[in-house]
Amino acid sequence: MSFPRDAEGVASRSDGSHERSPDDACPRKYPLELRERAVRMYRTAEPKPVIRRMAEELGVHHEALRGWIRQAEADAGEPLTALGGACGR
């Protein structure tokens, strides 16, 4: 079923609720290139840098950087030990 859309692409239903189309995804706050570079910098650094300090130097939120690193570890099938995962506590 299709609902009429306003100028912003939001569909209005007869009950007053709204629905967004898949094309309305929010843009990423940080470019993919920055994310990839930050993860690469962290993974190749010895000793491992402090996440907060590295994030500050890159101009990103420390939790964003931590999440990118954790996701890269998960994608590579590595245990989540470097950032305080269950095995690293």
Provide a concise account of the structure shown.
The protein is mainly alpha-helical.
Label the structural class.
mainly alpha
Estimated helix fraction: 25-40%
Query: Per DSSP, what share of the residues sits in E-state strands of 2 or more residues?
Result: 5-15%
How many runs of DSSP E, i.e. beta strands? 2
Determine the number of helices (DSSP H or I, runs of at least 4 residues): 3
Shape-level CATH architecture of the domain at 32-88: Orthogonal Bundle
Order of helices and strands: EEHHH
For the largest beta-sheet, the strand count, sense and barrel status come to:
2 strands, antiparallel
Notes on the structure:
- This protein is mainly alpha-helical and 89 residues long.
- It has a domain at 32-88: Winged helix-like DNA-binding domain superfamily/Winged helix DNA-binding domain (Arc Repressor Mutant, subunit A, Orthogonal Bundle), CATH 1.10.10.10.
- It has helices spanning 32-44, 51-58, 62-75; strands at 10-12, 18-20.
- Strands 1-2 form a two-stranded antiparallel sheet.
- Helix 1 (32-44) packs across helix 3.
- The radius of gyration is 19 Å and the shape is elongated.
- 7% of the residues are buried.
- The model is unreliable at 85-89 (pLDDT under 50).
